[in-house]
Amino acid sequence: NNHCSSADAAIVIEQWQQVSSPDAAAQTKLTGGRAVFKKLFEMAPGAKALFTRVNVDNFESPEFNGHIMRVMGGLDVLVNYLEDTATLDSLLAHLASQHAVRAGVTKGAFELMAKVLMGGLPKVVENFNPDAWANCIVPILNGMSAGLSE
Ligand code: HEM
To answer: Can you tell me which residues bind heme b (predicted)?
Structure first.
């Protein structure tokens, strides 16, 4: 499949450690994830309604915290599998099917998420390498949104 080169993958995996290492993760994943969703809803206010079930109206509720950590945990697994593209594709196919059953989730929302991540990550990752990240993140988000409507 069209994933990033192993050189790009190595950079991204190494830089992701700054966000996801065990001592950083408990806070950065939650606060970073919150920032991502806040920005996403600013850019696409209509998307908020998709998350009613996980109590999006109470942005710091246990339910929405749980949702954020499922998403960030998912992203963590994907990034760490960038160099094993067969397993990566299997993970992406599973996530794609989990999103396909949620009415209203579109490809466009995933494109927006890519933009939000590319805008936010430089704030928490030192020496952020935009090319490597774009090369790796875009195929991941495309893979997860495969089969969704535009
Ligand atoms: C980095 C990108 C993303 C990752 C890794 C990700 C991952 C996940 C995971 C792991 C779940 C929980 C699945 C389950 O337990 O059933 C989930 C649920 C969900 N995701 Fe995503 N997601 C991402 C982006 C998005 C985007 C861009 C949207 C649309 C705006 C979206 C919409 C949803 C919805 C509506 C749910 C169900 C929430 C609920 O439990 O009611 N996701 N996502």
So the answer is: 99
